[in-house]
Write a structure and sequence with these properties.
This protein has 13 helices and 10 strands. It is α/β, with parallel strands linked by helices. The protein binds adenosine-5'-diphosphate (ADP).
């Protein structure tokens, strides 16, 4: 865990879209939440539960309607000047769904440099790091001078991600970053974020619909329901409460479902386990009794 990793705190935060209009919508309702520094936190919740709105506060893209948000040593509220939160754009790297849709450069290098230059970084310095960045996101060196639009969708996404990582963010917000990829590409991309997280001691938040991912990668899980966090804890704890998850419209991870079925068949497996391998060991031990 990085000693200087950034903690994120929401204090009584509410957010209303289009206040005072017929389309007024309260998307966050009195949120109190701490995302611990150095943790890999996953956020799950049904569509419309406020996950994206919550995340857009972390880099100051949205200012709370009520309450206060703190990211590291920057605290802001409704009346904070936008100029004051601007440095957060660099500190907090955001990867949204389909980031490749933002590419526009005539070469891969140009696209990777765009974000860092926007953030006032020295283009020559970042340019020297391009080989390392391409390696990091698993792209061959020879794509550097070619058009990003000749690459596959998965490779284009890696170019966009290299541009985010190039700014050396201290916080990484990943909002369904693997959407639309095949299972192998999906896993490879999340593994890449996990190793980047560990090697650089970041605070990482992954918003996902995929309960298996939420289970696999998280130090801590936050479940959002109707504009506020309704469950928070280690994945083993949060995912044991299958009735609660179902009442919130969420799927129960396969490992938990299978364990419950086995228990109903009289094979008592109480341990919490996360992977197919751990489950197989538990079944074998139990079966041998
Ligand atoms: P999630 O990411 O969990 O799907 P969102 O944060 O996108 O949830 O949305 C929370 C609520 O706010 C939803 O009811 C959604 O319709 C509404 N909402 C989101 N974005 C906007 C917007 N730009 N304008 C108005 N309402 C919005």
């Amino acid at each position: 865990m990085g000693e200087d990793a950034v903690q994120i705190t929401f204090n009584n935060v509410s957010y209303t879209y289009m206040p005072g209009s017929p389309f007024e919508k309260k998307a966050l309702e009195d949120v109190n939440l701490t995302i611990r520094s150095g943790n890999f936190t996953t956020i799950v919740g049904s569509t419309g539960s406020g996950k994206s709105t919550l995340m857009q506060h972390v880099n100051g893209l949205l200012l709370p309607t009520e309450g206060e948000v703190t990211v590291g040593n920057t605290s802001f509220h409704r009346k904070t000047k936008r100029k004051f939160v601007k440095p957060l754009r660099r500190k907090v790297g955001m990867v949204f769904q389909y980031p490749e849709h933002q590419l526009f450069g005539s070469t891969v290098e140009e696209d990777i440099l765009f974000g860092p230059i926007q953030h006032g970084m020295d283009a020559d310095e970042v340019s020297k790091r391009i080989p390392e960045l391409l390696d990091l996101v698993g792209l061959p060196q020879d794509v550097r001078d070619g058009s990003p639009f000749q690459l596959s969708g998965g490779q284009m996404r890696r170019v966009a991600i290299a541009g985010v990582l190039a700014t050396r963010p201290e916080v990484l917000i990943l909002d369904e970053p693997a959407a639309g990829l095949d299972p192998a590409g999906h896993r490879a991309l999340l593994d890449l974020f996990q190793s980047w997280h560990k090697e650089n001691g970041l605070t990482t938040v992954l918003v996902t619909h995929d309960m298996e991912d939420a289970f696999r990668y998280a130090d801590e899980v936050v479940v959002m329901g109707d504009g506020r966090p309704v469950l928070q804890g280690e994945p083993e704890q949060v995912f044991q409460d299958s009735d609660r998850l179902q009442s919130l419209g969420l799927a129960v991870p396969a490992a938990v479902r299978i364990r419950e079925k086995l228990n109903r068949c009289g094979l008592s497996i109480d341990e919490s386990f996360l992977s197919a391998k751990q489950m197989a060991t538990a079944i074998r031990n139990e079966g041998g009794k």
